[in-house]
Design brief:
With 116 residues, the chain is α+β, with helices and mostly antiparallel strands. The protein folds into two domains: 62 residues, no CATH class; 47 residues, no CATH class. It contains two helices and six strands, in the order E-H-E-H-E-E-E-E. The strands form two sheets. Strands 3-4-5-6 form a four-stranded antiparallel sheet, with no helix packed on it. The protein is globular and about 40 Å long. It starts with 9 loop residues before the first strand and ends with a strand.
């Protein structure tokens, strides 16, 4: 691998849950914990990885959440009319944060904005 002057970058993985399609929970979870996560730290990069709720065993969520620097939850709130997309920070290491649920709005150009 050729060295780059700036190795830091942002990666967004829309779902790590697809790794479970052909692998047992322990195999793909241990792969992320022992290979993928340490590689991201060496590169000084940030990864936003997603997991589908209620799809995996509790063991998977506990292991991956314990290794993450932060947990951000998204949900569709169908109790309001019209339904709203919501976001909250559940945990974040070494910083203060607001853990309340906030509404999200999608603009005409698909830009996502936080609604106060």
């Amino acid at each position: 691998m050729r060295e780059s002057p700036d190795l830091s970058w942002l990666r967004i993985a829309d779902s790590h849950s697809n790794l479970a399609r052909f692998n047992d929970d322990k195999s793909w979870t241990e792969f992320l914990l022992t290979r993928s996560y340490p590689a991201q730290k060496l590169r000084k990069s940030t990864t936003l990885g997603a997991l589908t709720n209620s799809l995996h065993s509790d063991w998977v969520y506990r292991k991956l959440e314990a290794a993450a620097d932060g947990i951000i939850d998204f949900k569709l709130d169908e109790t309001s009319d019209p339904p709203r997309n919501r976001i909250r920070i559940r945990s974040m290491r070494d910083v203060g944060f607001d853990a309340r649920w906030h509404s999200l709005k999608t603009g005409d150009n698909y830009e996502v904005m936080l609604v106060e």
